[in-house]
Amino acid sequence: MKSNSLPSTMAAEETAFTTPEELNEKFNHVIRRRSFLQGLGVATASGALLPAAGLLTAKQGHASELEHHGPLSRGDAAILRFLAAAELIESDLWTQYNELGGVNGGNPAYIAALENLDGDMPQYISDNTDDELSHAAFLNAYLKSKGAQPVNLDAFRTLPSSQATGAKQIGRLTNLLNLDVDLSWYTRYRSEENPDFGAKFKGPFTISNQPAVPLNDTDTPPNTPQPAPPITPQSRRMQAIANTAGFHFAYIEQGGASLYTNMALKVSDLEVLRIVVSIGGVEVDHFGLWHDKAGNAVASPLAGLIDPVTGLTFPDLNAPPTELTQTNLILPEPCDFLKGEKLPPCSVIRPSLTENAGAVATIKSFIADLLFAGQSTAFFEFIMELAVEADAARRDL
Ligand SMILES: [Fe+2]
Known about the structure:
- This protein has 397 residues and is mainly alpha-helical.
- The protein has twelve helices and two strands.
- The chain has helices at 20-39, 45-48, 58-61, 74-101, 108-115, 121-145, 184-188, 233-264, 270-294, 354-357, 359-368, 377-392; strands at residues 179-181, 207-210.
- Helix 1 (20-39) packs across helix 12 and helix 4 (74-101) packs across helix 12 (377-392).
């Protein structure tokens, strides 16, 4: 099966924004419209969904140090609404992985290939899925409890499912059938430099236009044995798909780690801050786990695998081991952090500034990942509006 015979909904021309320039123009349009409406004293589309009391300042909402009583500030509501959307997006993609490769997953060959990365992979996939579902449900319930509008993305569940054994045939928010997985995080967390000071990173190799779930049973028969390393073309194909998933897991969760760190800096109310840092910590936990497991795809005995369909190659990143490639260097290297002449490097989540880690930056990264390939213009407009509102929130004590 050739990669150009992938489902037609994944075709580039059906993606609403195909170039970084078009994407930037779209975001700038949302920002300009928001500024214009605020100048007129009119709430933006997502602001209009808030109750009138949502426009109160955080100070007015403070009733005690640890508990929040009364309505949310506009900024806090915008942060929680964007995070609820992000969690619904995460839930959608993790649910797809869980159906096929979780502990009760329905595709034996995919599960076996994932287990070649670590025997506990199916359990971890199921638990990560549960975590994201709980985050989305909690954030929406909290918004509701404060009289604010929860986020519902059901109208955008329009993308096709995998056709492979185990996948439910229902509409999806996210595309996992052909991904460009950004691997720059792998190098970034091994480097002493920080993207918040302008450092740029390249991944140790490239994953482009590659499925992260099995596409169908012709491409990857569901009962194919998966030895490590795999021998037959079909088992090598499935292993490349599972390896791609392994790197995609870490990519998604490192994004969550940076996003929550950034959002915490904008929160006003202490209870909302508790929510953001407490969920954010779990995103960091997920990232550390997946960072470790992904390394097994690029270490002996799996390293050197070539996808017989796409040609994607998983190199041996321990041959030779270097500071920027060695697979067991998964704990963050101390890096530049705060500007201060005498401040030493610090091991931190990075990036954490809005430009690199905020809501808009997160959505742009997901678009580049092709996670939303095939989504409608209405979806992009809705998610961009939420992202711009969240990035505009400011800590107000
Ligand atoms: Fe989450």
